[in-house]
Amino acid sequence: MEFQVKHVGGIENCFVSLPFNLIQILESTRRPAPLPPLLTLELRSPSANRHWTVAWSGATSSSSSIEVAQQFAECISLPDHISVQVRAVSNVVNATLVTIEPHSEDDWEVLELNAEQAEASILKQVRIVNEGMRFPLWLHGGAVITFLVVSTSPKRAVVCSGLHLYSDLKVILV
Asked: Where is each Peroxisomal ATPase PEX1 N-terminal C-lobe domain found (predicted)?
């Protein structure tokens, strides 16, 4: 299954929105089980063999493309209008500890002024991280902080679907 990626403004989370026909295809391959919240986007490129692991929270895109917040796509180097293959990921490695830090001095300054809001927002906006990844966090008033994932535990955790409000996951800001 190949679909085009489309960067969009106005999305303030690190989830993808899927076209309705892709949702139907994925549902038909998973019956009777429900769709998993995690999808792997694999890029076919003559110059690079890349893949991205992203989360889907059930949103339907407004087009026939996979829609991704522009800031998030830029953080993970996911090009606009690129064709990708999509497959549902199973056996996801759950992280128990994720260490993050603001990406720049400006991000530090914004975080210092909005620490409580950032803490409350992070688990609502991000579900997939891996070591070395950058991701945006949207705050009220249009402010965006970019974070860098310094480490995950276990060390080889590729994704952490455990990023949800009532998990045992610890997120440490350094």
From this structure: 98-157
Query: What mean pLDDT comes out for the span 99-127?
Result: 91
Cis-peptide into 32, omega within 30 deg? yes
Q: Yes or no: is domain 97-173 CATH 1.10.1060.10?
A: no
Domain borders along the chain are: 2-88, 97-173
Q: Which CATH code, of 2.40.40.20, 3.40.50.2300, 2.30.130.110, 3.40.50.2000, is assigned to 2-88?
A: 2.40.40.20
- pLDDT (average), residues 151-172: 61
Sorting pLDDT into bands at 50, 70 and 90, what band is 156? low
Residue 166 pLDDT = 46
Cα(157)–Cα(162) distance, integer angstroms: 11
Half-sphere exposure of residue 61, counting CA atoms within 13 Å on the CB side? Answer: 25
Continuous segment of H or E residues that includes residue 7: strand 2-8
Selection from 43, 170, 158 nearest residue 89 by Cα: 158
Upstream peptide bond of 136 is cis (omega within 30 degrees of 0): no
Give the model's confidence band at 20: pLDDT under 50 very low, under 70 low, under 90 confident, else very high: very high
